[in-house]
Amino acid sequence: MATKTKAKKKTATKRKPNAAFMKPLKPSSALAELVGSTPLPRTQVVKKLWAYIKKHNLQDKKNKRNINPDTKMSGVFGKKTFSMFEMNKIVAKHLS
User: Fold this and answer.
1) Could you please report the per-residue DSSP string of 7-58?
2) β-strands 66-67, 82-83: how paired?
3) Window from 2-11, 43-52, 69-78 with minimum mean pLDDT
4) What angle do CA 94, 48, 17 make, to 5 degrees?
5) CA nearest to 87, candidates 62, 39, 95
C-alpha cells in the first residue's frame, strides 16, 4: 500500500505589485479630458475610464463587453465601438 506524501504548504506572503503598472504616466491631451492631466498609474487610468463609462451608461446593452464611446471618448479611441479587451491596448498609446 502506497503512502501519501504531504504537500508542503506555502507560507502566506504578500504579493508585491508590478512596478511597471504602478509608475505614474502622463496622459495625452485627449485622454486627459477623461481622467485628468496629472500623471497616474495605468491601473488608476483604467479605473477612472470605467467610472466614466458606467456614469454615462456607455456599455452596449446586449453585449456588455463592448463599449460605445461618446464624442468625448471618441477622441481617444477613434472607433464607433470597441471591446473592453481592446481598451488597455488603445489607452497604452495615450500614456507616456
Assistant:
1) PPPPP--PPPPPHHHHS-BPBPHHHHHHH-SS-B-HHHHHHHHHHHHHHTT-
2) antiparallel
3) 2-11
4) 80
5) 95
CA distance 93 to 42: 11
Angstrom CA distances, 83 to 7, 65, 90, stand at 42, 6, 11
Residue 39, pLDDT score: 95
Q: Which of 54, 87, 16, 15 is nearest to 78 (CA)?
A: 87
Q: Given this model, what pLDDT does residue 65 score?
A: 94
CA distance linking residue 88 with residue 96, whole number of Å:
14
Contacts of 85 (CB under 8 A, 6+ apart): 65
**Mean pLDDT score, 46-51:** 95
